[in-house]
Amino acid sequence: MIQRFHGLDRHKKHSTISVLNREGQEVEFVSKCPDLRSYIEQLSPEDAVVMEAATGAFFWADLVESTGAACHILHPYKFKIIRDSWNKTDKQDARNMAKALWVYLVTGEFGIPTVYKPSVAIRELRRLFSQYQLLNRQVTILKNTIQEILADNGISLAYHQKTMLSSDTEAKEMMDEFDLSPASLLSIQTNLEVLWKVEEQKNGLKKEILLAGDPFADEVKLLITVRGITPLTALAFLADVADIKRFKTLRKMNAYLGLVPRVNESGGKSKTGHINRESRRLPRTLFTQSVVHFAGASSYLRLYYSNLIALIGHVRVCWGPGRATTRVYLAKTCISNF
Q: What gap in Å lies between CA 114 and CA 73, rounded to an integer?
């Protein structure tokens, strides 16, 4: 049975800790704990800890659980006691969290909003995909910069010419054909060299992602049976969703992926708006890129896709403010059929 309840307000250089006993009385208060690791190593299965979700929270939660103690990672935006506090201090935050944990585990009067803690393998995949997204953004920036310089010289690249930028041989031959000023040529060459290096790093990172996804081989084999889903897309979906059983309904999972439309209701009338893009972006983006293959997977999806085109028009994928696309709706349908 848990006897001590620790509210831990963690910071970079020190942590503030409040400890309550089984009766809800504060038996210990640490204003500034400089060595959090040593403090955690003294815990036992009779302890329960609550801390805010922040950078490094999963690491410290793993360390707490390795001692046999229970650990809860608090969702700070949903924890109103902290969010709505007039005088927000480290001391109050630690005591509020400890009190909330005690009420939750002892009296059961109300729950505490916590975040999902994925496994170490999932966290490793997420870290690799974050780096992969960063490299993708850098590639886009470099290509756009090159095209802007060419546009200043009166040159507009066709689609097939844009794809040639990633190849050092083809890009050099193409640039030799253009009449560019010395400054423009030097700027383009500099950007191209950086682009090729980033592309090389990106390809190597892709191989590392596939290797890191080896524990999920069975799930990947199941997902790639859907037309248009590649192993990389499947791993991106698994990395963000993790355990699909943690979602009580399909709508909750769609909301987590940012595929549920906003709804405005007033006076008995409801209006469905654009999709909510506030959550996970990577799998949603990858699924929309696979929509053309989705549409050809069955007669039902082909008909559904055709009806959407007739209803809202055949538009390109765009994530600008206030825009939703045919492809997004179809991606939502395909995800729902997994």
A: 5
